[in-house]
Amino acid sequence: MSEPIYAHENGWELDIIAGEQRRRLWCQITLIDKYTMVLEQNSWIASAFGRHHQAYLDVLLRLGIALAEDARFHGVRWYTSDELRTQASGASLPVES
Hints:
It contains 2 helices and 4 strands. The chain has about 100 residues and is α+β, with helices and mostly antiparallel strands. A 4-stranded antiparallel beta sheet has the order 1-2-3-4. The longest helix has 16 residues, at about 55-70. It is globular, with a radius of gyration of 14 Å. The chain starts with a strand and ends in a 28-residue tail after the last helix.
């Protein structure tokens, strides 16, 4: 994982290297009404075929479990990029285990 970079009005950004194939994931944490964390896999192949790499899914699952187990975090909701700016209620976990 890289050191967080202050991105001014966009909050903080960092890169996460995950999985045996060392996939690069990009993360941004921003305060927009509530704290929002965006985690993206930077893969044109995944975008073209509309599916996520297993390393990305594993990071989401582990992050979801860790946040659920930590009392400092409550009311965490998970959204796809299409749901984020809608009235969708979000999911309680990022992915099914």
